[in-house]
User: Fold these one by one.
Assistant:
Number 1:
Amino acid sequence: MKSDLLHRFLRYISVETISDEDSNTQPSTACQLNLLMMLRDELLDMGIHAEIDEFGYVMATIPANCDTQVPAIGFIAHVDTSPDASGKDIKPNIVENYDGNDIVLNKEKQIVLSSEEFPELRQYVGQTIITTDGTTLLGADDKAGVAEIMELASYLVKNKGFKHGEVKLAFTPDEEIGRGVVKFDVRKFGATYAYTMDGGAVGELEYENFNAACADIVVQGKNIHPGYAKGKMINSQLVAMELNDMLPENQRPENTDGYQGFFHLTDFCGCVEQSTMKYIIRDHSKECFLKKQQLLLSVVDELNAKYGNVISLDIRQQYLNMREMVEPHMKIVEIAEKAIKMAGINPRVQPVRGGTDGANLSFMGLPCPNIFAGGHNFHGRFEYVPLESMEKAVEVMKNILFLFLEYEK
């Protein structure tokens, strides 16, 4: 399996699939369709019924081969990569039998994956580590999950003796920009329960995530010749900076972890006349999430009173914490946890400090926890994934299918 899984992964990361939050199309970029259609064709070549719809969703079904009535189980991964770093012309670096030391990604540019800066690397001594050349992201988020699901599909087709219920597979675009399942047809997909294969390090299992909103802010200044500006000029950049300083410093991403939420200034662009800012607002607690939004509104109101209605604010809701939708179906979390243990891994049940397609799917009627895909350092040039972690993810999916069969007997 190792060589097949590696081959799949390298093939998928060679296809550029960056998503674009400024696009109004679905998918947001045409390049994503190249991989989505490739996946459909590969599934068809395996003899699996698969199709792609007008929105780019690939859905496939592997029929049950057992007599027991078992819920249809889905596995889902997204094909797009984050706009935060280039995902074009990825040059993978395969480090076999990793020795625990620094990994030189790019000798010419002196880019090093440091085992001191990223000490979790050392837990993979002796394994095969896949990195980039330090100039792009890798795309393990979530092409590791894509490769793992495709490897599962291949295994089920080739091993008829492995008994299972109906298996549903799906690949989605635009997860990285929060629109991954906006038009996903849950009823058509047909799964009773599903799992996104989109988590991080080996052993991770998540069924709660942030509540999420984004805020677009425009500050309208008043540009006057600086020699005659006294009492007249309003420098929009300074007002924007004042706004940011009024938000609590201890609620920034770099100062939070665990269940702590944050305000994250993602974009700032401006001049004296006008400045624009973008924030994302996150919290696991719905109460704290709403308080954060109210705080931002009150800060804007205070500055508008001070400067004369110079700030406009638009807050948009993105997704909610899936915990409330998964908890009534906790057997799917318990089965996943047991499946991870069966693979010889210590499960790490923890909240997602981010979002997942599973959050929106859970609120659409498809309870959908998140399972590790194996990668680290997503969205940047230091991203890497151990091949053995990907193998374990495939094993966990097989264990889940086995356990659902046992659960229903």
Number 2:
Amino acid sequence: MKGTFTAVRMDENNKDYVQAAKREHALYERGNTIRSEFDRDYTRLINSLAFRRLKHKTQVFLAPTNDHVCTRMEHVIHVKSVSETIAKYLGLNTDLTAAVAIGHDIGHAPFGHHGEDCLNAILNDNKDNSIKTAGGKKFWHERNSLFFADYIETVQDPNGIERNLNLTYAVRDGLICHCGEIDQLSIKPRAEPIDLYAIKQAGSVQPYTWEGCVVKIADKIAYLGRDLEDARRYHIIDMTAYRELREIVAKTLGADFSSTAQAINASTIVNALVSDLCEHSSVEAGLCFSQKKFDFLTELKKFNIAYIYNHWRLVEFEKYATLVIKTIFDMLLRTFPFAPSGKVGLCLKYFPQLRDSFEDWLVKHSNYESAGTFDRTNALHYDTVSVFDCTNEKSYIKCIIEYISGMTDQFAIAIYNEIISF
């Protein structure tokens, strides 16, 4: 029913609003109050560099050159659209929903989930290498989105000083708790705030707000249908797969849904699932689908795994993506330790694109000091936390991992080509 969740929406009338709107530091004021706290978070996220780079990051098909194939940024916009539709109908806070949705993947690695697996494998090979603020021993993009929001991404204040995003608790919570890979018929928010860096596994903790729960579900609704459309565009779904897809529809949806292949697309899938979710959700039951639509969602995910995500062409490209990421990591690892000062410039002198980019990263996010006469810290007016210790190998390894995680597909490939070219 429309407006069912109005009483629990996260706004000034909610008993948990003070915690939800809490920031680690006081936010500067601009002399007006035309935006809500969550709306301010939204604009801070869309102005971050990590958000801008999403347009050249993989959603499913790696390093896409086809303008009509979904990238990570387009996926994020789809999630925002689906989330806001649900939140608006149910009576939830659309400002909070939009902020969580637009920022939920800012920590995603290049080359999609495979890139995430590559960085995780590198950390597992260096099992003792972690620092507290970087979020533990393993790499997973939900926690990395929180880490980037807290420590990496910046916006300029009214005086032109680069400062960290300093988002509200509810938005930060939504970033790390957005994992949509867990198959659940119904979800509800958890009751208490927690230390977000104490979360050790993706999907293990529900979001703190109903709005965060909406984004978690919308993430799955948005990607399944669009991934199917892109697979068709690349002609990787054969007639055997189409027959199985029609069988899934017939088995789970029956007469409610057309069985023609053309009708099973992102638009019809999103409409069917969103309308069903809105109809069956309540504060008492949680955000939930009917059993029939939930079965359809589950079977469609299995179909995509079998015929899209594990397709041999993607698997072949993943081998190349692994080589790209591992080569960049190994190259940068060779620059440690930093003695004498400026060794990064010396060791990378034949790779100017990598040298300049990585040195800028170090100046902004670590205790590294450039050997040159140009003081980037003062010139660029950074007021950011020094996250990484370049004199400590464990911290330096995490520094490399985070640097690579921020790359776009195209930039990672360009750096790889620079490294292997003579």
Number 3:
Amino acid sequence: MSKLTKKQKLAAEKIEAGKAYSLKEASQLVKDITFTKFDASVDIDVRLGIDPRKSNQMVRGVVSLPHGTGKVTRVLVLCTPDAEVAAKEAGADYVGLDEYIEKIKGGWTDVDVIITMPSIMGKIGALGRILGPRGLMPNPKSGTVTMDVAKAVKEVKQGKIDFKVDKSGIVHTSIGKVSFNADQIRDNAKEFIATLIKLKPTAAKGTYIKSIYLSSTMSAGIKIDPKSVEEI
């Protein structure tokens, strides 16, 4: 077993074993225990009391974080020529259609989000095997298949994220950077958790929010008291 570095020991000392922190406390603590030289992402993991194998208990949605993600999101818009100018003016990094479809078929996926129009989905369907496993396939539920591509681009650039529960019943996503102040991290976490609560399936029984953990890219997880969610 590898020895802990001095910084790792300092971080470990700041977390009280077995303690569940309030969201406010955790938002400051995640900054205090992160010693990376780069601006680490702040991640949240929420275990839900659902059975994701059942279609009526699937949890998937989008949320616009009040303070954004802190990340530079590379956006590709696959659209008709008449929508290209609006997409570019909205901040899309790549705009086009057939040339990018061919690039993707060749293995290019150097983007974070792909936005398209309903009329284009027929052409994109064949890319499912490439885009699906990477979480890049446009989907009407996530707002990435729309007639108003410019609006969709602006929302993504401003901090709109798409999330989906995994096979274990856990929703994992990044909600900011450690360079954010504690209040910004807390605000983003509150908005994300509030959105999850709104999406609670009617078929879900018992405790819905089972556990919440906050962490940074290379830090230990900080357990959050689910009851502190009541503050939201």
